[in-house]
Amino acid sequence: MNKPREVIIVGAGPAGVGIAALLRRSTVQDILIVDSHEVGASFLRWPEETRFITPSFFSNPFGQIDLNAVTPNSSLALFCGEEHAGGKTYAKYLSTVLDEYQIPILAPARIVDVALLSSGNFILTTATGEELETRSLIWATGEFQFPNRQVFTGADFCCHYADVSSWKDVKPGEYIVIGGYESAIDAAVNLLENGSSVKMLTRSAPWSANHIGDPSISLSPYTRERLNSAMNNRLFEVYEDADVCEVVRATGSASTYRVHTTNGRAWLTDEVPILATGFLCGGGARQLSAFFEWNDEGYPVLTEEDSSTLFPGLYLVGPHVRHASNIYCFIYKFRQRFPVVAESIARHLDLPFEGLRDWWHLPSEPDCCADSNCDC
Fold first, then answer.
1. Across 28-71, where does the E strand assignment appear?
2. Where is 361: in which H helix or E strand?
3. In a 3-state reduction of DSSP, which class is residue 292?
4. Distance between CA 88 and CA 220 in Å, rounded?
5. 171: buried, middle or exposed (CB in 10 Å: 19+, 13-18, 0-12)?
6. Residue 288 and residue 274: Cα distance in Å, rounded?
7. CB of 376 within 8 A of CB of 80?
8. What's the CA angle centered on 275, arms 271 and 279, to 5 degrees?
């Protein structure tokens, strides 16, 4: 086994790449990213038509960082020339950031075991038997690859949003979409554009006036705009207070489904219902469930520096981070925690850490894909 790394980061999505880039700007230089698939794997698995709901705009030189950037000196909008980029484009952007900061990555390499050594270091074992030792471990495994499938009886009869490669591959028909937030409306809009009819069943109305506020619990303006347009489509019906409790195969037909709600109503469809119920609370952090304490809402309990309360040196970054009522499930939210984690790691390694917060809040000229001749 090689000499212990200062930091190993598990996950090559925006959380993992972003924290690695910030550490590169610090005195922490011995960094390795490990991913079970490839850079931006979750985004590469988005449906082809899925777009960022947060807009990208290049205003970094004026102190306003692109909402979807993972470093203050880069911009997704500058990178690709789109306001609402797709998943494949974002994966390319993340790869560009890795190249820019010369961050090494080991992928594909699936971690099958994590253990704590008597020295306080962590030992990670890959599926091929390779052992990686590190003084600090950052878990950054994201959400999209952990869909919430078992939300009610018969949910396994449904097709989860995360299982769709492209909505163009879904044959036109009469569909039921279960859910009412971003992915449900995205599914409905794409199905309508394909010529299908859609009944959307939702237990609440996140587009209503009393939901306006934190975009983590209400619809984004981008999605509201798309929903408002869809409301004019005669093939689209929305049923509020429709809390789905069961999906069953209809008696006497192998291809028909009956969707039941808690208020006693039922809907029939010949098409597989679309499950747009989001992703597991705690997501990838549950791969290390024994290394964290967990709160009643299903999220890991963290210190003020986003480390495990049980094991110093283990950190969580990304959309699963929660502090009181603060929800960090957008890139522009969870990236604000990067300097906190980086400073804590530097202290853990007995290294200086001055200037990390300044770099994030006082951006300089862009240094990632800013060339006007860029062919991205």
1. 31-34
2. helix 356-361
3. coil
4. 22
5. exposed
6. 30
7. yes
8. 160
Is the Cβ–Cβ distance between 52 and 84 less than 8 Å? yes
DSSP 270: S
Rg of the chain over Cα atoms, rounded to whole angstroms, equals 22
Handedness of CA 323, 324, 329, 331 (dihedral sign): negative
Token pair listed for 317: 């970054």
Interacting residues of 40 by C-beta distance below 8 A, sequence separation 6+: 12, 13, 87, 90, 91, 92, 93, 94, 95
Give CA torsion, residues 34, 37, 39, 45, to 10 deg. Answer: -150
- Per-residue tokens: 97: 């950031």
pLDDT higher than 80, residue 19 = yes
Q: If you search the block for the tokens 């090689």, which residue do you land on?
A: 2
Strands 293-294 and 300-301, bridge-based pairing? antiparallel
CA–CA separation, 110 and 127 (whole Å):
6
Q: What is the pTM of this model?
A: 0.90
Two tokens, residue 100: 């820019």
Token pair for 371 = 């060339």
43: confidence class by pLDDT, cuts 50, 70, 90: very high
User: pLDDT by residue (tens digit) across 134-160?
Assistant: 999 999 998 888 888 888 999 999 999
The pLDDT mean for the chain works out to: 88
Question: What does the pLDDT look like over 314-352, one tens digit per residue?
Answer: 999 998 898 887 888 899 999 999 999 999 999 999 988
